[in-house]
Amino acid sequence: MLPPLLQQAKSGVSQHPRDPRYWSFLSHALRLSGDVDGAVEPMRKAVKLAGPDAGLFNSLGSALKETGQFEEAENWLQRAVKMDLRNTKAWWNLSDIRSDHETAVAQLRSLLGKGNLPEPELVHFSLFRHLDRLGELDAAFSHLSQANQLRYEKFKPDAATDRKLTDQIVSYFETNLSVAGDNESFGDEAIFVFGMPRSGTTLVEQVLACHSQVQGGNELTALNVASAQVRARHRLEGEFPFWLEQLDQAGWKEIGDKYLVLTEALRGSFARLTDKSLLNFRAAGLITSALPGAHMVHVHRSPCDQAFGLFKQNFGDGILFSYHFENIASAIADHNRLLQLWTEKLPAKNYLPLAYESLAANPDTQIPQLLQGCALEPEAACLQPDKAERTVRTLSATQVRQPIGTASINSWEKYREQLQPMLEQLEKYQLI
């Protein structure tokens, strides 16, 4: 069964085969459903039908970058910014694959000087990347701070909302964990990989997806869709997770069944499918109840690296707590409360907490343990995830194609002086 959005997109292309907007929509729908490879050709078709279009050039370059075709991706992105200097999204997409950093800095500074840019914060984020690689740390951090301040002022996120949700999850699942029927293996096709953004989840999924029995699903929405459909059908009231207490075993299994149907086409002929929707760390109790045979890998990272990793990344409107140090510290504290809850409450045979630092420093011992924790036999290919040719639809698409190493551990240290406000917030929340 195809996800509703993908059904709609395919229907649109069928009815309007010469309209580039529908091909572009199909490409985006395929990316959202996890089929990143399949998204490239519809975007090529859109570009061909539309003629010169900087926005479509950027979209094609982004899709190619996710499939690891960096040289062609850079060509399309360069065409995008040449056609439209003000296409700040294309400048951002270019910033982690081009190597002419001095030229890039000059171009981006000139662009900022023109003013009146859409999303100028993307230019600041891009300048941070290039200046960081040139070793100009003060200038780099200045642009990073400006980027985050612009984003924070735009969204004005409230950490209290996320804290309330965490309180509700802890309150509910401390005493409410049920299982969908008597079949403990139900849902064992699924392997959920989750954790805070920038915690190492992409590397973990890449390792698993190198296994001959595993299809890498990237970041899927199937669990949210399945849960929402069951909630709507039964007209269940209340906030998450309290509406779950209105479900009986049949209701839990209905969520599990819908999830498996929604992901069946993506899994294809593989026995297992990974789902790397990051914020599923809030839904681990739901997963256990709806899919008791599913395995979960909960990746966590040291607070300083985690916090800086969030602050230096552009998440658009997806991860709003990442643009302010106090919100970041609060979010890490919330996450750690849930990490502790699930470690205490969930079956060890299905739930595996994994420290990124351990995996990066000792892959030869940690990867076999990871495979065992997911009920997978050892395979040599999993020890070299950087050799895999699969697509990666996340902000870590470039990093994950590098050999496993410890280069990113304590990477915040070189900005220690500038990061004093971050350290103060981490201390305030008793994280360091």
- Global structural class: mainly alpha
Strand order, sheet with most strands: 2-3-1-4-5
The global form is globular
For CATH, the homologous superfamily of the domain at 160-428 is named as P-loop containing nucleotide triphosphate hydrolases
Give the proportion of residues in helices.
55-70%
Characterization of this structure:
The chain is mostly helical and 432 residues long. It has a domain at 160-428: P-loop containing nucleotide triphosphate hydrolases (Rossmann fold, 3-Layer(aba) Sandwich). The chain is 56% helix and 5% strand. It contains 19 helices and five strands. It has helices spanning 4-15, 20-32, 36-50, 54-66, 70-83, 88-94, 101-114, 120-133, 137-155, 159-173, 201-209, 222-234, 249-267, 284-290, 303-311, 325-345, 356-361, 363-373, 420-428, and strands spanning 190-195, 214-215, 272-275, 295-300, 351-355. A five-stranded parallel beta sheet has the order 2-3-1-4-5, sandwiched between helices. The longest helix has 21 residues, at 325-345. The chain is globular and about 65 Å long. The model has no long low-confidence stretch (mean pLDDT 93).
Tags for this model:
single chain, Rossmann fold, five-stranded parallel β-sheet, mainly alpha, 5% strand, globular, 432 residues
What's the layout of helices and strands?
Blueprint lengths: L3 H12 L4 H13 L3 H15 L3 H13 L3 H14 L4 H7 L6 H14 L5 H14 L3 H19 L3 H15 L16 E6 L5 H9 L4 E2 L6 H13 L14 H19 L4 E4 L8 H7 L4 E6 L2 H9 L13 H21 L5 E5 H6 L1 H11 L46 H9 L4
Parallel strand pairs: 1-3, 1-4, 2-3, 4-5
